[in-house]
Structure to design on (217 residues):
């Protein structure tokens, strides 16, 4: 479960306040809203990448994690541009989070192999990000985010820069994420089509509030 309660964020002249919504465990939620309304700020705050001014961020049984460092929150994060490490190969990008957690090399090797097969990027493992297409980069970014089997997956416009065919392929992979893991997902997008293809719950950030537009009890 991801539960945001009375969240407030201030940065320069931008601010949002009293943001509240809940994504039940194992559900796929999409957050929509106009450009500049604060969607990215919200998921960055949940991930621990942006300080908050007020409110709480509850993650499952962990309780309020507002003061926890990003690495302790059990969150896989896919930023809009993928943000792959340019000096690392695809293999090294996929292994990065597991290496930070000092996983055994045998486990890292097996997980990289598993992700490469699932995401159809086995032939890319020794390439560097500069040699990848947009769709390839996003698959690698998704694999890196899922590598350590996080409880939560946050994605910021992961399909926005892709052509139609590549976007449809990634949609199929994201559906597959739901069947192969128990991860709770929050996905930011401008595309109602993406939301209709993927989500259990559709939230809209409008007028400084998050409204549940579809799903839930």
């Amino acid at each position: 479960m991801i539960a945001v309660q009375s969240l407030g964020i201030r940065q320069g002249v931008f601010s949002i306040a009293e943001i509240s919504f809940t994504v039940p465990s194992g559900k796929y939620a999409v957050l929509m809203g106009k450009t500049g309304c604060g969607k990215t700020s919200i998921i960055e705050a949940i991930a621990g990448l942006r300080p908050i001014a007020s409110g709480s961020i509850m993650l499952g049984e962990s309780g309020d994690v507002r003061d926890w460092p990003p690495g302790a929150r059990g969150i896989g994060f896919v930023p809009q541009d993928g943000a792959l490490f340019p000096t690392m190969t695809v293999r090294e990008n996929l292994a990065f989070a597991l290496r930070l957690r000092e996983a055994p090399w045998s486990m890292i090797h097996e997980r990289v192999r598993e992700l490469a097969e699932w995401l159809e990027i086995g032939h890319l493992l020794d390439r560097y990000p500069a040699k990848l297409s947009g769709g390839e980069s996003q698959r690698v970014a998704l694999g890196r985010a899922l590598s350590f089997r996080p409880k939560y997956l946050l994605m910021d416009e992961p399909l926005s820069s892709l052509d139609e065919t590549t976007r449809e392929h990634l949609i199929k992979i994201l559906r597959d994420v739901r069947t192969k893991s128990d991860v709770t997902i929050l996905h930011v997008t401008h595309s109602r089509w993406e939301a209709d293809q993927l989500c259990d719950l559709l939230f809209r950030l409008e007028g400084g509030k998050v409204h549940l537009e579809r799903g839930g009890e």
Summary: The longest strand covers residues 2-11. The helical segments are 39-47, 90-100, 105-118, 134-146, 164-180, 192-198. The CA atoms of residues 71 and 100 lie 9 Å apart.
